[in-house]
Structures are given as structure tokens and as C-alpha cells.
Write the C-alpha cells for this entry.
Amino acid sequence: MSTPVKKVPIHLQSAQNRLLIKNGKTVNENEIVEQDVYVEDGIIKQLGRNLLIPGGTRVIDARGKYVIPGGIDPHTHMQFEFMGTTSVDDFYQGTKAAVAGGTTMIIDFVVPKQGESILDSYYAWRQKADDKVCCDYGLHVALTSWNDKVKGEMKTLCEKHGVNSFKMFMAYDFYLKDDELYGAFQRCRELGALAQVHAENGLIIKKNVEKLKAFGVTGPEGHEMSRPECIEAEAVNRACVISKQVDCPLYVVHVMSKSATETLKENRDNGTWVYGETLAAALGTDGSNYKHSCWHHSAGHILSPPLRPDTTTPKCLMEYLAQDVLQLTGSDHCTFTREQKEMGKGDFSKIPNGVNGVEDRMSVIWEKGVHSGIIDPCRYVAITSTNAAKLFNVYPRKGCIAVGSDADIVVWNPSKTRVISSKTHNIAIDFNIFEGMECHGVPEYVIVNGRVCVDEEQLRAVQGHGKFVETPCWAPFIYAPEKMDELTAPKNNGALNEIELTNKLAKIE
Ligand code: URP
Ligand code: ZN
Ligand code: ZN
Ligand code: ZN
């Protein structure tokens, strides 16, 4: 018996499945080309001029516009239980907002409770996200305890569940001690994964908080005072030193200060295998907001590491991105309402840490990077999409405009402007750290897996349209053959790798 096949009417098929983006300039990390893009069934099928296209294909005219790979935000916290509350953007609202702003993939953090199975926590995150996401997503997994069970489950996550990155905290109650970081980094290296760190010295912060409170400091300004730049830079240095002992590639998340970036650079120049991510928040605003007379305004800007009082920081970080001292940008989107922030009224250390950014990251970086003349559109694509795709090993499926890649595409109009405001944004809070910023460059069309989800600036995101994307270990961009040769070659740079150790012991005999 044959099953009846439900025929989709031809006009709907073409609207859904076939799309031609004409007359635009495609931008990849290495070149800008005037060419058309033909998409079928969610995949880029042809690039060029005068393409042969089936009748009934929808045509988008991109004349005068850039056609760029959809943004990949490698750092979000949707629906995250943290500091006694839960961030308010869930995977539906958060990814809807991402799409509105030109981001077509996010990578969120599974953060297990201390002692909880990291595998169970991963399943719980999949359950929170799978039916809700409007765009594709991947997962990093945080290690909040260190023991043999965690070590075993890391392998399962890598080999069976498409996880290739693990975040270790050096601050908060669930930080790992130095010897635990050593073990965790070593395990990442064995598995071909990427070790990520939240770099701040948590023990010193704790002492500083006590001291400030004893002096009567209770307001949001105490947050940055308790965790100044040197607290971040020290931890970046320590993470670099530890990762070098075990030759593990390291990814420092949310680099927020000049000192931390300089420390990262110094370590890289001395042979540490390290990558740096900064945030839209760090590029688009600064720590002068902690001096604002309105408590809610100040508290609304609290995240860790904090924004810096040195107002030259945002421009400086953008220059570091231009020079490849830093490689990529995330949002660290983790939103709390005013009421939630009020949990820290009278005690700044209890203000839930986190700010918005998933929706505005692409606009803020275009404005502060391309429009202000520090980077070109190619570098923009690299730091908002391509480098994340490469490091988390989903390139060239994502992160470029190429035949065979997923049709995650943004038609970016550099001539239009928009003003960021909580009155018009798509996230769940009534506050925006970029309030009032005029941004040149608007995502006029956002195509997610071949579907037009922003259409002439109108948001048409679809719940459940996204899917989980596996991020396999041994990313060729990280573990490239040249890199491996370099690692096994004799050297004297402070790393205690096995070859080096064998050589040293041989000399003693
Ligand atoms: O303040 C922040 N960054 N909140 C989110 C959690 C984290 O440390 O990334
Ligand atoms: Zn963090
Ligand atoms: Zn106010
Ligand atoms: Zn974060």
C-alpha cells in the first residue's frame, strides 16, 4: 500500500525553498565580490553572475548592500539560573532577538550545578533549547567541579554529543583551583577540545568585597572597584601559564580590559596557544555608567569582568580586534529585569551579573568598527562570524558565503541607520545598555537556513526553526598540522610537554 504524498503548492515551495539574492556584494573574511547568491533547500547552491535559476524563485535585490555570513554569537546565557535567579530571555525570545539583529547561530553555555553530572546538565540544556530556538545553536559545557566522573563525561560529550569546548571559571563560588585547571586543560588537550576560561581572581575579589563593605560601599560602583583590571589580567596570565604547561589551546572569554588584552598578547608572543574574545558591551559602552546617579542604570550595566572606567577601552579593544590580538566577539547575553537587579539593593555583590547584547552585537560592531574606520567589512565578518565558525569547528558549513554552506545570510544595508532602544528591541527587559546609540548599517534581510526570517526589516522568526549543531573536536583551524609540528619541535619556552620532558630527562642520564 502506498502512502499518500501531500503535495506542497508550487508557489509555496519556491517561496520557502528557492531564493536569489541579486546585485549585492558578498563579503567573506578574505574578499568582497560582486555576485549573486542562489539558495535552495537551505543551502547556498550557486554563486556568480547570470546564474541559471528555476522559474518562480523569489528574488531579493541587494544592490548597494553587502551580503554577509549570518553572525555567530559564541557566548550567550539564555534562561540561565545564576546568582539566585534566572536570566529572562529564554531560547525562544533570545534567538528571536538574535535573528532580528543578524545573528543566525548562538553558542550557549551549559552550566551544571556543582557536583551535578555534566552529561545530565547537557541533556537539560538540550531540553530547554531544542523546541524553542529560532536559529541554530551549539553548546559549550562549563566545568564547575573537577573529578574523575567529570573527566569521563567530558569524553562522552566530545565523542557522542558534539561538544568541543569547556569553560572553567576562575571566579564565583564554583571556580576551579589552579591544579584543577591544570587537570581540566590537560583533559581538553587529550580530547582535542578547546579550554575556555572566565579569567578573574575570585579569592581576591572576595577580600575586596569585604573591604569595600566595611568602608560602607554598597552601591553598584563597588562592583568594578572590587574587580579592577589587574584582577582580570592576573587571571589571564595564570590561565596562560597553566595552559602552556600542558600545551592546551586556550580561549579567554569576555576579555574586558586593556591590561588583560596586553597580558594575553605577551603570553601569545611567548608561545602560548591562546585566543581572545571580547564583547559587544566592552566595545559599545564603558564603566563610566557605574557612576550614573540612577541605581537601575548603574546596576543594569553590571557584568563580570566589569566594563572599565578608562573610557578609551572600547576603541582600544576594537584596535586589538583589527590587529588580530583578539579574534572574535560575543555578547555574553544574560538579561535580568530591574526587579531581579534589585536583589542587590544595599549589597552590590548580590546584583545578578549580566547584560544584553545578542540582538545588537552586529550593529554595535559595525558602528564602532567599520563605520568608524577601524576595520573593513572583511575583518568585520571574521570577528562576528568566521573565526567563531573556525574555532568551534563548523566552518565552512557556517561562517562564510560559499557553495555548499548553510544559507545563513544577512543582507546588510550600510546606508541605513537605526537607533537602539528598549522601546523597540525584541528582548525581555525594559533596559538596554546601548540605549540611544545611532548605528549605521541595518540587517534588512536575515536568512536562517534558507528561510527569510527578517524580511525588509520585518521580523518573521519561527520558533523551533533552528536546530542543535554539533561542534566536533580536533578543529583543523586550531589543531592544524603546522601547529602540531610546532608543538612537537624542541623548544625552550616554559612549556612542560612530553617531548621536552623526555629531552630533559635524557640529558640528566
Ligand atoms: O556577568 C556575566 N558575565 N554573566 C554571565 C556569566 C559569565 O560569567 O559569563
Ligand atoms: Zn564568565
Ligand atoms: Zn533611572
Ligand atoms: Zn558569560
Remarks:
- The pocket of N-(aminocarbonyl)-beta-alanine (ligand 1) is lined by residues 77, 198, 254, 303-304, 332, 334, 353-354 (CB under 6 Å).
- Residues 171 and 248 are 21 Å apart (CA to CA).
- Residues 1-15 have pLDDT under 50 and may be disordered.
